[in-house]
Write a structure and sequence with these properties.
The protein is mainly α. Helices cover 84% and strands 0% of the residues. The longest helix is centred in the C-terminal third of the chain and has 60 residues.
């Protein structure tokens, strides 16, 4: 049987890096959002401009939803990774306590 080594510190570091990535994506997203929304009035008020403005808004709404969902997913991954590390630590601690108890009962 192959052994499984879990490096909890690496899991916590990975969660921290995901947090950093999420913040970088969020900053780029907010910058993109500002620039894209500033273009909304650039199409003019004639029929063609109105249609272009509507198309621009539909594309922008889709992009904003997509980016927003991805940022939320990164946040969820970070939370799950930290919870996974916490759960592994709790199981390790509980297992160690059980063995300590057994050794105490055996008089070792």
């Amino acid at each position: 049987m192959t052994s499984l080594d879990i490096d909890l510190e690496s899991m916590y570091q990975g969660a921290g890096r995901l947090d950093q990535a999420k913040e970088s994506v969020r900053a780029a997203f907010e910058q993109f959002q500002g620039v894209a929304e500033a273009l909304a009035d650039a199409f003019g008020g004639d029929e063609l401009g109105t249609l272009l403005g509507m198309a621009h808004q539909a594309c922008l709404d889709a992009a904003l939803e997509c980016f927003g969902t991805n940022i939320e997913d990164l946040e969820d991954y970070t939370i799950c990774l930290r919870e996974m590390a916490d759960n592994h630590q709790a199981v390790d601690d509980e297992t160690a306590a059980i063995f300590e108890s057994l050794l105490g009962e055996l008089g070792a």
